[in-house]
Amino acid sequence: MPGPAAAASFTGKAATCRLSASCRSRRGVGFVSRFKVHYSPVNLDQLAAFPAGAEVTPEDLALNGMLRSLKAPVAVLGRGELPHALTVKAIVFPVGSRKD
């Protein structure tokens, strides 16, 4: 069993982290979730290109070049106005894009 002299000579990671530049630069990075969902955004003014009463699916949006990827779920954002009614199949509708 090591004596008190061995315990006093151990510096540990905390002491080296105060000194090394690589450890100081990593501070403040924080937590990054592996399960974060990235959405494909579509604005209301882009949806105005579809005819009135049409049912708009993610495949239709991809065919018109409004989506980068079909893998990501669609989020309809509130920029612009939609002059006619549409049925949109999307995952997320923030408060700004809804009309009650």
Helix-strand blueprint:
Elements: H1 4-9, H2 12-19, H3 21-25, E1 40-43, H4 44-47, E2 55-56, H5 58-63, E3 74-77, E4 87-88
Parallel strand pairs: 1-3, 2-4
Textual characterization of the structure:
This protein is an alpha/beta fold. It has a domain at 40-97: Ribosomal Protein L15, Chain: K, domain 2, CATH 3.100.10. The chain is built from five helices and four strands, in the order αααβαβαββ. It has helices spanning 4-9, 12-19, 21-25, 44-47, 58-63, and strands spanning 40-43, 55-56, 74-77, 87-88. The strands form two sheets. A two-stranded parallel ribbon has the order 1-3. A two-stranded parallel sheet has the order 2-4. It starts with a helix and ends in a 12-residue tail after the last strand. The mean pLDDT is 79.
Radius of gyration: 26 Å
What's the number of helices? Answer: 5
The percent of residues in helical segments reads 25-40%
CATH second-level architecture of the domain at 40-97:
Ribosomal Protein L15, Chain: K, domain 2
- Average pLDDT, rounded to a whole number, is 79
How would you summarize this macromolecular structure in one to three sentences?
The chain has 100 residues and is α/β, with parallel strands linked by helices. The chain has helices spanning 4-9, 12-19, 21-25, 44-47, 58-63, and strands at residues 40-43, 55-56, 74-77, 87-88. The model has no long low-confidence stretch (mean pLDDT 79).
